[in-house]
Amino acid sequence: xxxxxxxxxxxxxxxxxxxxxxxxxxxxxxxxxxxxxxxxxxxxxxxxxxxxxxxxxxxxxxxxxxxxxxxxxxxxxxxxxxxxxxxxxxxxxxxxxxxxxxxxxxxxxxxxxxxxxxxxxxxxxxxxxxxxxxxxxxxxxxxxxxxxxxxxxxxxxxxxxxxxxxxxxxxxxxxxxxxxxxxxxxxxxxxxxxxxxxxxxxxxxxxxxxxxxxxxxxxxxxxxxxxxxxxxxxxxxxxxxxxxxxxxxxxxxxxxxxxxxxxxxxxxxxxxxxxxxxxxxxxxxxxxxxxxxxxxxxxxxxxxxxxxxxxxxxxxxxxxxxxxxxxxxxxxxxxxxxxxxxxxxxxxxxxxxxxxxxxxxxxxxxxxxxxxxxxxxxxxxxxxxxxxxxxxxxxxxxxxxxxxxxxxxxxxxxxxxxxxxxxxxxxxxxxxxxxxxxxxxxxxxxxxxxxxxxxxxxxxxxxxxxxxxxxxxxxxxxxxxxxxxxxxxxxxxxxxxxxxxxxxxxxxxxxxxxxxxxxxxxxxxxxxxxxxxxxxxxxxxxxxxxxxxxxxxxxxxxxxxxxxxxxxxxxxxxxxxxxxxxx
Length: 583
Prior knowledge:
Largest sheet: 8 strands, mixed
Number of strands: 18
Structural class: alpha/beta
């Protein structure tokens, strides 16, 4: 290699699409779009901002957050080492850059994700920074623009990273209520928990040319289904044909399109008062009780002292217990815990997903709307119910029943038991990510009590779609996680044989999650397990439901919504406050 080779390498770049060797300055002048084939290269967040905003208008928002490793996660490297390496290689503090600026002279707040930083993953800090950006937009009464690039939620922060989907979604809901425009721009790639929350629950969804978006990634879908994927699957043009985005925009046109959208909404924004004032909620410590000024709600409980609930079991053993085929299902609990269940079917859009069951029932003398995942006990039942993995039709059926409950003044009780949402090709084509996102967004503002119970497996966004609640209960041998231990092991360890180690690192058991503040109460199971004594399990679950639901019935709807938002708002930069509890 000659002495000039390093400089030559800097001057030239090879296109990932057509393999053409391109002069770097020419490529930069073309906004990092290949002039030969039109391939849109991935952009770093600072470069994206430089391209989009008016010169001299950019004002970065503060990004200082406490150093924290909320669950002391270690795979082949300690999590803090991965963070340090990402910061050194990118020059960024986290996987998102937030700022105020103008585009075409119109003010906005922007949050731009950077895939270079741990795959643009959504962790507590990223969720906190985007939420702060949304709150700044609310304060300034200007639109919020989100530029997404992410592989999904950050595994190294466990279920706390999953909570960010709800935290950011409720910030989007507050902007919607105030009549302020929210826009997301999907760039390549946008997957997982980001796709299933704020990337698709904004007012407008734009996709940059060549972007890919979906809930499950192509590799996962191929592994689960064993099928080859259709040409162009999950790409921007296919998303447009399936009605999942408003428009596909070439990079050179993106700034102009955003400016036109901001201009179109400016007159309404200037003279329109908020339809519902939404006070900002400062993040409270994760283990802090609900405000004393709201006595109608029970205080956060300490972990139960019942012998059955305090027994120590290895996390991997708990995972296997949660998956036991004899474990009671939602239909079993509807027969044993509730009375007079009347099942309601269909999403009113053409589907009736068997993995979600729901309808009206009685709990003691109270009518409630019960919605839950249904697995089954036999192989035939499991296959007929898709192993409890809901399709978009299932999530939309649940959404229809939630809204019906709100109109009728019925409390909502959800029973969560799913490995995750359906990762199939048809589910992606029918808008799986957007369906989950809409459920999460709706639950953050539903004006009726919501009580969720993790009864078996609580898998990722498919579980959260039914678990944004005023109170979250969890059976002793259930699990709740951002990703399956096998999936986590396959990504962060050499192979899936490390699943037991991953299960321990993810802090997915009921006692762990109660200490983290994700779960409010652990419901003890019989000394063996729920499947060995389902009648006693049902008795204990019924008592826990009544204890937690009855006080919620006296809370005014506006207060319920405010406290529910406060619950999820606290899963942010205060991560350090929980560390002592999980050691």
